[in-house]
């Protein structure tokens, strides 16, 4: 089958998206790959968003009204089951596709026979102005076709191109509010589905103050629920089966225990051999876990080694401030420096705002 003959379903779960939905729809309907259907699931909106959708006359566009607000996971499961496309991709009602996004994703997916294909995103603010930096799946994850290392960190982006066959195996967990994408990608990886990263940027991702991703405490709680679905020994066996070294398995075990709040077990894994990667600095994790286990004096040496290698590490400076505060000193200069390196850094901001606060950053930033 020729690539242009493959239909792609673009799905939007619409909830009170009136300010941005017109721009999102225009970007989807203007795709260079014209063989699309556009499904908009109105998830109980109480504003004028559905009326804007109805004002579009493109025959490829269909509005589906839900009887009540059911949540993002429910909406995506419904659209995945209803989609007529060979592939499905999501578009949030406040984001914007580049005109050739679907075409480029589809070429990568078909060429590599990938089940799930992602590109990279630029960030824009609420008014649509560009923000610095891009969002991209790291090389250490994208280097392997199952993206198995997502079990270590949630570094996947939310709106890939998904082959329709995936929905026969995996569904979105409707209990999740802010982490149902991560849950979905882990299910797919564990089941042996294949991933690919397409070159280039294809989507403008809008950063808003009301973004669910800003609720760090809830995301942390949901991450714990997601990871507890998997037994750590079985994950270790999966890693070995897919060719990962014992060092990588030790790092994975450390993070699995850490996210589950099992700090003694995480520290034990952090004391075993680790992969030699700048983004996976064993000294950082040993120091943060020594702090978690009530051993600030022992944490100083590995933390100082980490900062010697990475002098602009926000997490390193924040945790040095925590260590200083726990030992009766003034950690504020370290928190200030951490916030300078990463504006908006929540742990450092909270530690600066409350002189009794000791928020530890668990994972390397």
Description:
The protein is of the alpha/beta class. The protein has 2 domains: 3-214, Alpha-Beta Complex (Spore Coat Polysaccharide Biosynthesis Protein SpsA, Chain A), CATH 3.90.550.10; 297-365, no CATH class. The chain contains 15 helices and 9 strands. Strands 1, 2, 3, 4, 5, 6, 7, 8 and 9 form a 9-stranded mixed beta sheet that branches. α1 (21-29) links the parallel β1 (8-14) and β2. α9 runs antiparallel to α10 (263-270) and α12 (296-309) packs antiparallel against α13 (314-326). The two termini are 43 Å apart. The model has no long low-confidence stretch (mean pLDDT 94).
Keywords:
365 residues; alpha/beta; Spore Coat Polysaccharide Biosynthesis Protein SpsA, Chain A; 2 domains; 9-stranded mixed β-sheet; 15 helices; 42% helix; globular
What's the arrangement of secondary structure elements?
Layout: E1 8-14, H1 21-29, E2 36-42, H2 49-54, E3 61-65, H3 72-82, E4 87-90, E5 96-97, H4 101-112, E6 116-124, E7 130-135, H5 139-142, E8 161-163, H6 180-190, E9 195-206, H7 216-227, H8 232-241, H9 246-259, H10 263-270, H11 282-292, H12 296-309, H13 314-326, H14 332-341, H15 346-353
Parallel strand pairs: 1-2, 1-4, 2-3, 6-9
Antiparallel strand pairs: 4-8, 5-9, 6-7, 6-8
Helix pairs in contact: 8-9, 9-10, 10-11, 11-12, 11-13, 12-13, 13-14, 14-15
